Amino acid sequence: MPAILSSALLRQFALVLCWSAGFVGYRYAADQAPTLLVTFWRFALAALLLLPFAWTELRRLPLRIIGQQAAIGALAFAGCIAPSAKAIELGVSPGLAALLSDLSPLLVALGCCLLPGQRTSGRQWLGLGLGLTGVLLATGAGLGLGVAPGWAYVLPLGGALALALATLVQSRLPPSNLALPTQLFIQLAASSLVMTMAAGLEGPLRPPLTPGFALAVLWLLIPTLLGYGLYWLCLRQGSPQAVSGALYLSPPVALLWAWACFDEPLAPGMLLGLLFALAGLLCLNAAERDADRGQAVQASCGQQP
Questions:
Q1: pLDDT tens string 74-121
Q2: Does the pTM of the predicted model rise above 0.70?
Q3: Sequence-ordered list of residues with C-beta below 8 angstroms from that of 160, at least 6 positions apart, any chain
Q4: CA triple 50-51-53, angle to 5 deg
Q5: What radius of gyration, in Å, describes the C-alpha atoms of the chain?
Q6: Which positions fall inside the EamA domain (predicted)?
Q7: How many CB atoms lie within 10 A of CB 6?
Q8: Nearest to residue 121, comparing CAs of 265, 300, 284?
């Protein structure tokens, strides 16, 4: 079990590192082109790269599974990313956008309380509380700052709700052997269609032929392929509370990305917030380990004559 827990933590740390890269990616992309246009090409290029790996399995899939993953993808990618990206373009700082959009763990925990057969334990609530405290400490210095209009701060909250819904729906689906590249391709293809309409309302979909635009799209492949790939992989092997709770580390790490890439000042409580968020993640993983142990004991007792 310690080895399993250690590998789970490593996957979650990798998830956070790749996921948080998206916020500074959009901080750079906002200076190159409209963020919705960048998002469209981000999804379209990622789907194109995945197509050769997904084609064989894709031809055999029932339409029901394709429809399910397309709906989940529209929520998790287009519904989550586009509002946060637009908020950053309008002037919301990357750290604050990360804070608002990564409130999804609380929404997931609340959703688990409402769904039959799932619940959020006291220890999981403690871990989520520590994580949220860490986020507030890390980003607290900049919460009152910004040049964006007031309504722009609602956009990342809508993204958080979309990701929470996608997480809960995915966690409720029966286990399947769907390959991860196929799952991501369906989700990204559906999201590309959504972004065709959203970005098309702002202007032509023709990409600017500049090195800056190309670099922005290529950089955003990190959170698209690795970040979301690790998110769904962790969700297959863990509870939605623990997996979504790992995202509480994203705002402090996004601040580190912004400091390293754009020389943005670090919030005074960033390091302390990072430690609180890490403590919350460890608490969530410990709660999951105890739950798995309890299920194993019940199973062994049930097998005794």
A1: 999 999 988 988 887 788 776 677 677 778 888 888 887 776 666 777
A2: yes
A3: 80, 100, 101, 102, 103, 104, 107
A4: 70
A5: 19
A6: 13-138, 151-285
A7: 11
A8: 284
